[in-house]
Amino acid sequence: MTAAVLASFADWRAAQQAAVEQALSRFVPADAPAGLGEAMRYAVLDGGKRLRPLLVLATSAAVQGHAEAAMRAACAVELIHAYSLVHDDMPCMDNDVLRRGKPTVHVKFGEAQALLAGDALQALAFELLVPGEGSLPDAMSARLCRLLALAAGADGMAGGQAVDLASVGIALDQPSLEAMHRRKTGALLQASVTMGAATGTVGAPALAALTDYGARLGLAFQVVDDILDVTADSATLGKTAGKDAAADKPTFVSLLGLAGAQAYADAALAQAHEALRRSGLAETGTLHALADWVGQRNS
Fold it and tell me: Transmembrane segments in this chain: where (predicted)?
C-alpha cells in the first residue's frame, strides 16, 4: 500500500474501532447480577484489534449494507470471539494467565464467574442480532444468527478447539492442521465477512468470492499467529509467548519451519487478494487493506 492509502486505512480503522468500542460498551451490561456485568465488560472492553468487527463493517460497506445490522453483527461476532477467549484461557483448556496484556478473566474473577461471563457473552451475541424493537428485517436477523451459530458451533470454532485439545503431542499433517484451523480460527473470521455481506444484497458469484476471501484470510491469520508465538515476546503479544511449543501443540511453524510458515502465510494472503478481485465489487479497498494488516501485524 502507498503512504496515502496506509494513512487513509489507519484513519478508517481508528474511527471504526472507536465506534465498535462505543457500541460494545453500550450493549454489554454493567448491572448484570452478582458482579457478572463487571466480568463481562472486563472480557470485552479496552483491548484487542477488533479485526472481526472491522471485517463485518468493511464487507457491509462493500455491498452497501444495512448500517445498524452491520454494527450489531460486528459486535455480535466480537462477543463470540471474547467468550471463546475467556473459556479457552481457563485451566481446563489452555490454562493461560495473560490475555490482551492483563490477567485472564478466571485469574481476575475466579473460574466460576469466568465460565458464566463467557456463557452470558455468547447469549448476548445472538440477542443483538434480534433486537426487540424490530429495527432489523426478520429474514436478515435469521440469516445473521445462522451464520454466526454455524461458525461458533461443532463444525466451526468449538469443533476446532476440540480437535486442538485432542491433538496435543500429535504431529498432524498439513491437511489435518488446515482443517483444524479452518474451524478453530478461520470459521469466525470467514463468518465476519459473510455476515457483513448478509447485511446487503450480493450476487452468488460475489458471495462465493467473499467467502473464499474470508477462508484464505482465516488461514493466513492463524499462520501469522503461529509465527508470532515463536518470534515475539509476551509484552508485545499481550499473551503468553511460546505457549504452543511448551504445550507440544501442532502448529504451522512446527510443521513447516519459520520460513515455510511465512511462505504459506504470504501465499494465503495473495489468494485472499485474488478472491477480492474476482468478486467484481467496486469498493474492496478496505478489505484489501485489512488483509495486508493481517499479514503485517506484530501482535
Answer: none
